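Action item from last week, closing it out:
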Amino acid sequence: TKDQSGYFRAFKGLARHVYTVPVSLSDAGVPNDELALRAGEAGLSAEPVSSVASALMLLRDTWDGPPPRILIGGSLYLAGAVLAENGTPPT
């Protein structure tokens, strides 16, 4: 619901690729295919995937450089879901 293209523009020249994922814990989220389009409009290579786990597997299978830095951002709902899935919710 925010300026998605503006958000992604901040990462131009920093991010090699963007994976967009659905946010299951919120009805207010933007569909991940639409987010991938917004990232592309901002000049980033992007693709929608079904989950963070899928994105990490794709990254593992296709990355050809030193270990990358991974940013999970854009939504507190997404951050909470990732922490819960990882078994590391905040205390």
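Closing note: Residues 52-62 form the longest helix (11 residues).
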